[in-house]
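Hi R.,

As promised on Friday, here is the backbone we talked about, encoded as structure tokens. Could you run it through your design pipeline when you get a chance and send me back a sequence?
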């Protein structure tokens, strides 16, 4: 998307601080955020309001929120170029989310696969209503900033569709207010799968020991997890959509997301090699990605005050835009302005 009238199109995205970030978060989201930050006007938030749709320990949530923000910077986001902020620091998110919740048809919400998957694991009595309304909050995040593009993994495409539909509905009922956002899926690595179970997306909240490589895993631990990744009894190293071959496909996907090489070039490079060679190559490139990232992260976490100043600036920049949009939406919906 080219700049219109000299203004860069706006990008907004977020990750929940509900666990330790994994290479799936890095390759499926953060890496792309960093790559686009000079070409777009970028807003990246730590979505703590989304995290509480499932129960969180308070001290843990606070800590994870700081850690996530530090990791955004460690991964390469420049706070002077990208706006980095915490979702709950800008109250307009909660306020617009309520207005959108009131307009969101239950039928649409019940059709969301993420809700169906997450609620299937709990009883009716234990599911918070926030889990169902999650997409309205996400729509508020996006619409408050008039975001043109939203970089997310393809599991979030349905929530993006929902956001567009809801924005359209609002615009139709109350007049043009919101920009309809488009999805921006990364080319490779959009979906890094579990190393222990390559048919399920790698998750930061999955407990199994060899499931995910966390961004803060020690390099030997990260290597070990990759060397233990589930593969298959075939020999051929090639990209494949077959369920049986999901493990090898996942390793190749990780390799490709890091090296940015074409599928053909990668398959040619591994043509005469065994799975052991493939795993070692993946382990090497993952380790060389993690090493500088961890160094920056630990430096940031010891530099008292810096992170707070980044989040304060982010809150001010994001808040000003979000407040203006909220005000317009409130006026359109018929709220009496305070005098
Ligand atoms: N739902 C997203 C996820 O789980 C996180 C998210 C919340 C988000 N608000 C957003 C992503 C706004 C993009 C834009 O991955």
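Update: got your reply. Pasting your designed sequence below so it's all in one thread:
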């Amino acid at each position: 998307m080219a700049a219109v009238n000299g203004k860069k199109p706006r990008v907004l995205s977020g990750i929940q601080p509900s666990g330790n970030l994994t290479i799936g978060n890095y390759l499926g989201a953060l890496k792309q955020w960093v790559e686009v930050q000079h070409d777009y006007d970028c807003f990246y938030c730590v979505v703590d309001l989304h995290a509480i749709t499932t129960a969180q320990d308070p001290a843990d949530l606070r800590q994870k929120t700081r850690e996530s923000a530090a990791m955004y910077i460690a991964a390469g986001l420049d706070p002077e170029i990208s706006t980095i902020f915490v979702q709950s620091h800008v109250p307009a998110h909660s306020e617009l989310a309520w207005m959108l919740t009131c307009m969101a048809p239950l039928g649409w919400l019940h059709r969301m696969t993420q809700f169906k998957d997450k609620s299937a694991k709990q009883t009716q009595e234990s599911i918070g209503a926030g889990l169902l309304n999650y997409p309205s909050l996400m729509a508020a995040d996006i619409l408050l900033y008039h975001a043109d593009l939203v970089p997310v993994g393809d599991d979030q495409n349905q929530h993006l569709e929902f956001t567009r539909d809801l924005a359209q509905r609002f615009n139709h009922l109350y007049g043009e207010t919101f920009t309809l956002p488009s999805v921006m899926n990364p080319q490779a690595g959009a979906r890094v799968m579990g190393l222990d179970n390559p048919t399920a997306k790698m998750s930061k909240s999955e407990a199994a020991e060899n499931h995910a490589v966390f961004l803060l895993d020690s390099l030997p631990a990260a290597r070990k997890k990759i060397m233990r990744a589930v593969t298959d009894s075939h020999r051929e190293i090639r990209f494949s959509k077959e369920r049986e071959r999901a493990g090898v496909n996942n390793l190749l996907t990780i390799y490709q997301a890091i090296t940015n090489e074409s599928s053909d070039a990668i398959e040619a490079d591994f043509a005469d090699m065994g799975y052991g060679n493939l795993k070692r190559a993946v382990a090497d490139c993952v380790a060389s990605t993690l090493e500088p990232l961890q160094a920056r992260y630990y430096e940031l976490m010891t530099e008292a005050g810096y992170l707070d100043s980044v989040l304060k600036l982010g809150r001010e920049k994001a808040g000003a835009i979000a407040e203006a949009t909220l005000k317009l939406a409130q006026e359109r919906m018929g709220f009496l302005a305070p005098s």
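One thing I noticed while checking it: The chain has 13 helices and five strands.

Thanks again,
M.
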